[in-house]
Amino acid sequence: MSDTLGFVRFNTGEISALMSGRIDTEEYGGACRILQNFIPSVQGPVSRRGGTRFVSAVKNSNKKARLYAFQFSVTQAYLLEFGDKSVRFFNHGRAVAKNGVPYEIETPYAESDLDGLYFSQSGDVVFIAHKNFPLKTLTRYSETDWRLADFTMIDGPYLPVNAGNISITPSAVSGSMTLTASAALFKATDVGRQVRLMHANKPDVQWGCATIAEYVSPTVVKAVGTDGYPFLAASATKFWRLGVFSQTTGYANAVTFFEQRLVLGKGNGVYGSKVGQYEVFSPTAVDASVTAEYGYGCELSSDQINDICWLSSGRALAIGTVGADFTLTATGGDSSLPLNVKVQRHSTFGSEAVQPVKVSHATLFVQHYGRKVRAFQYDSNSDDYVARDVTTLAAHMTFGGIKEMTLQQEPVPVVWCLLKNGKLAGLTYEAEESVSAWHTFQTENGIVESIAALPTANGEKDELYLIVRRVINGQTVRYIEVMETGLPEDAQDSKEAFFVDCGASYHGDKASVISGLEYLEGQTVAVLADGAVQNEKTVKDGKIALDTAASVVHVGLPFASVLQTMPLSNGVEGEAAKKRVVAVLVRLYKSIGFEIGIEKAGERQSFRQTNDVMGKAPALFTGDKKVAYSGGWGNGVSVRIEQKQPLPLTILGVFPAVAASKI
Q1: Cβ–Cβ under 8 Å, residues 281 and 142
Q2: Average pLDDT over residues 38-63
Q3: Residue 438, strand partner residues
Q4: Which of 654, 650, 652 is nearest to 48 (CA)?
Q5: What are phi and psi of 433, to 5 degrees?
Q6: pTM score, whole prediction
Q7: Other CB atoms closer than 10 Å to residue 663's CB: what's the count?
C-alpha cells in the first residue's frame, strides 16, 4: 500500500520531540522535528537564512561586549558597541571614525556591568539604567560627537514622608547649607542624594529640597539647595523625605516612557516624572498642592516583595517583576485634580531581568528561570491582561536560559532570543495570524554573545547584528557580524547569493586571487564565484586562489541548513503500520541544490540542465523536483533535507510517497 502525504506549510516551526505523538493537533501539520538555519515565513514556506557578513573586530577581543540599536528614525540608525568602559559607533556596518581612527567615548561600565544595562530612547537621547550606577543619558550631537552624562533629577523621586521622631534642621533656606539630624540618619554613601523638607508657618506650607554634597557625620551633612525650591525656614522639621536613588539605596534598573513621563523602576517601586518634564519628579507643588501633572511614586502590593525586571508602555504600563506581572494606569481627569495611580496584578509567572520586546500589541518577555517566553497583552474576551506561553510546543529551544532578545520586523517578523550558552533561537511571530514558529541559528566555530536589530540605510528591512566569539588561527576573537538577506528579492540568478558566515565579497574585474581575508586566517572557507560553487579553500596570508577567475565572489565559513519533518502520519489508525519513504516531491522557489535522505547519507540533487553552459552557474529553479528517497522501514520515518553549499533554498512544500505495511 502506498500513500502520498503532504507538508504544505512549516509555520509551526521546530517543535519538541515530546510532541511526536500529537498527530491529532492542527499544529503538527506545520511542524518540523529540526529547523536549523531556515526561517519560516508567516505564510508557511521556509527559506534558508542569509549568511553573516564580517563588520569589524570588537575593540578588545579578550573581553565581552554588548550591542545596542540606536534608532532615531527608519533611516537614521547606529549600532553601538558597549565594551569594557567604552562605547564605539557604527553607521550601517561602517565604523564611525574621527581623524582617521574609530570614534569612541569612555563609560563607567566595566565588562561585568554590561548585562545589567537597560536602555530606553527618546529622539537623540538614550537613557541608560543600571542598578549600581546613577541614571545616565547618551546624547548624539553629531556622528562624531556623542556625550555620556549623569541625568540630573529635580525634586525627587522620594521615599515616603518620615513617620518617626527624627527632625532635620537646615542652616539656610537656599544655597550652600548644613543639614543636621536629631539622631543618626546619614551615611557616607548618601552623597548626591536628595532631601525634601516641609516647613509650616500658618497659613503657609512650603516644601523645599536640597542635594547632599558632603558627608560629615551620621547626623550632619553639607548640602546645596535646589534652585527654585527654597525652604520656608531654617528651623527643625519632622516632615522630610529622602531621595529614592543613592549609593546607599541603589539606582533605577529599568527605564521607559509612558504618557509623556519618564518612568523608572527600582526594587518594587515605580516612579513617574511630571508630564512633559522628564527631569522633574516633584510629587507636589511647593505649597503642597497636587494636580494630575505632578510626579508619582508607588510600590507594587503583592504577596511577595519582588524586584522590577522590566517596564513596557502600551495602553497601560506593563511591569514585570521576579514574582508577578502588573499593569499601571494613571488617571487624573481634569488637570486640576490629583492623579489616581492604579496598579493591578495579572499573573504570578514572574520575569527574568531581560529587556522585553514589543511586537504589535503584545510585550514578549522572559518568564522567571529564563526558559519560557510569554506574550503579555490585553484580551477583550476576558477583559484582562493575559500572558500566553509561546514556547509551549518547543520548550527545548530555550534550554540554557535566555539573556537577550531583539526584534527583526522585516522581511519576516522574527524575535531573536540569545541564550546564555551562546546559542541563538528565532521565533517567527505574528499573533494576528496565530503564527509562533521557532527555529535555530547555528554557525560554524562560533558562540553568539550579543544581538541587536537595525533598519537598513534605505529603511526597507531590518538587519540582525551579532557579536560572535570564534577561534581563528588558534586565537580567540570576537567579531561583529551582520546577517544578510541571502538572496535579493529581485534576483534572477545566484551571483549575489550570500550564504556564508563571517563572510566578505569581491566585486570588480575578473580576479584569480581574493585578498583581505586576514580575519579568517587558517580557516576553511566556502566560495561562490559568479554564482557557481568552487572547491573549499584554506585562507593563507589573508588570501585564497580561485579555481576559475571571477568578478563577483563571496567567501566565508560554510554552514548547513537542515529541515527534518515530524514523523509521517496518515491518521491514528495507520500509526501501527511500518512505513518507508520511497520518493519525495519537493516544491521549490528560486533555489539551487539540496541533499535529501537520512542523516549523513543524503544524496545531492543536480539542478544542471543538458543545455547549461559548463563552468557557469545553473539558473535559479522554481517548480517541483521529484527525487528518489533511500530510507528504511520504521514507525517514525521522516523526510530530511539539507543544504550545505553556499546557495539559496526556499521550500514551499514536501510531498513524500510512503509505502506502508501493517505488521
Answers
A1: no
A2: 97
A3: 13, 427
A4: 650
A5: -105, 10
A6: 0.94
A7: 7
By the 8 A CB rule, do 414 and 427 touch? yes
User: 85 near 514, Cβ under 8 Å?
Assistant: no
618 versus 292: the higher-pLDDT residue is 292
| One CATH from 2.60.120, 3.30.60, 2.40.10, 2.60.40 for 2-48+561-662 | 2.60.120
At 549-564, the pLDDT tens digits run 999 999 999 999 999 9
Return the closest-CA partner of residue 543 out of 486, 504, 508, 509. 504
Angle at 76 between CA 72 and CA 82, to 5 degrees: 70
pLDDT of residue 276 exceeding 70, the answer is yes
Q: How many CA atoms within 13 Å lie on the side-chain side of 26?
A: 3
pLDDT for position 258: 95
Question: Is domain 168-242 classified as CATH 3.10.590?
Answer: no
The C-alpha cell at 345 is 496584578
Count CA atoms within 13 Å of residue 364 on its CB side. 25
Q: How far apart are CA 106 and CA 426, in angstroms?
A: 33
Best CA proximity match to 110, nearest among 155, 66, 164 = 66
Alpha helices in 88-244 (DSSP H): none
The CA dihedral of 243, 247, 253, 258, to the nearest 10 degrees, is 20
Radius of gyration of the chain (CA): 30
| All three cell numbers of 144 | 562624531
- For 76, 578, 579, the CA distances from 663, given in Å and listed in that order, are 65, 7, 10
Instruction: Render pLDDT for 449-506 as a digit per residue (tens, 0 to 9).
Output: 999 999 998 888 999 999 999 999 999 999 999 999 999 999 999 999 999 999 999 9
CB 349 within 8 A of CB 367: yes
pLDDT the model gives residue 303: 72
Task: Report the candidate in 654, 652, 650 with the shortest Cα–Cα distance to residue 49.
Answer: 650
CA distance 312 to 357: 8
> How far, in whole angstroms, is CA 639 from its chain's centroid?
33
As a whole number of angstroms, the distance between CA 20 and CA 617 comes to: 40
How far is Cα 572 from Cα 551, in angstroms, rounded to an integer? 56
Map residue 377 onto helix, strand or coil: strand
The mean pLDDT value for 626-638 works out to: 82
Q: Which residues pair with 343 in a beta bridge?
A: 328
Give the closest residue to 67 by CA, choosing from 105, 115, 109, 108.
Answer: 115
How is the chain split among helix, strand and coil, in percent rounded to 5?
5, 50, 45
The CA distance from 419 to 352, in Å, is: 13
- Break the chain into its structural domains and give their ranges: 2-48+561-662, 168-242, 500-557
For 606, the grid coordinates are 543536480
Q: CA 478 → CA 113, 252, 338, 466, distances in Å?
A: 18, 30, 53, 10
